[in-house]
Predict the structure.
Amino acid sequence: MATIKPFKGYRPPLEIAKQLSSRPYDVLNSEEARAEAQGNPMSLYHIIKPEIDFPAGTDEHDERVYQKARENFDMFRKNGWLVQDKEEKYYVYAQTMNGKTQYGLVVAAYVDDYMTGKIKKHELTRKDKEEDRMKHVRVNNANMEPVFFTYPHRDDLRAIIREVTKGEPEYDFVADLDGFGHTFWVINDKKTIDQITKIFAQIPYLYIADGHHRSAAAALVGDEKRRQNPNHTGKEEYNYFLAVCFPDDELTIIDYNRVVKDLNGMTDDEFLSRLEEDFIVEKKGAEIYKPQHLHNFSLYLSGTWYSLTAKEGRYDDSDPIGVLDVTISSYLILDKVLDLRDLRTNKRIDFVGGIRGLGELKRRVDSGEMRMALALYPVTMKQIIDIADSGNIMPPKTTWFEPKLRSGLIVHELA
């Protein structure tokens, strides 16, 4: 069963919460972070993307950069830009996108649950990315950014959240860049806090929705500290890491699309002819065409959109991985026709989150940067949970959750 606990979070004062908060470290590059933080010494980018405090081009993995993160974290606390709560609490974090709101509980998740598989994952992690975040956690002795979990929805938790959110929020603002709403409540009532802990103890598993590298890094550093401490008791704060847990029926998963630089030496007609072996191909014209259902794809090629529907027998509905559209397209189009393998490292392909819209696919092809684009129907939450429960791993670049968690509203110290 899932183990969580309340914690003494570090938070910004109300009047600077919007100014201090930021997008997650991994959704933008150094120069974008530098531009967003320009003229704002309170931006969390000075801690999570500290290379922006060095000359442009400085390696973000330079040891001086990690040390700068710690210097800035200390400075934020000294200046009163991040202030620790005096008592252990849970928090509610709500996000609103396109008129839809999802409500998450901010908790300290248990390292042991990650190590033993009670916190389930559906993606592989890369060692270099893990080590980067581990260094960041080590040097700050804190989880500066939360990971994004989901759990099978429960009416009792929903009732508690509904009651909490009747009260006045601590923070309530709309982010300038994306226009998404972020609202945050502090749970002070001891009885409610105990109730939440007991309910989570009845939930068999938590699932990582977004933030696999942050989860791995946080858990591995916690485990490392445990092994290095001869007086370890199991009650230390490093046994836990920062997470926001959302019910599975409130989350929004959007498409994660592909753009490819060439047709593997084929003409348009030859490429389309090869696709007809495994797909029903329908020409749609110049207007953007969006996939309508599972196993239906949209292709953009030479100024024209096409509908591709996988033919019966080309996929296995009983295989949780084989039935995924990302698997079908990877096998029948990218591998079989375009000879594209090892999607994690191949330079002929790039991936575009659906938040950018299908117009971004069109733009990249029309510009001549890419030769063709492929849009996929989003995976479902059920598919993600089925795969995690079966112990399988999704193919690369399968899921894109929106909205992203705002960093800086809450920090968890490991001391």
About this structure: The longest helix spans residues 212-228.
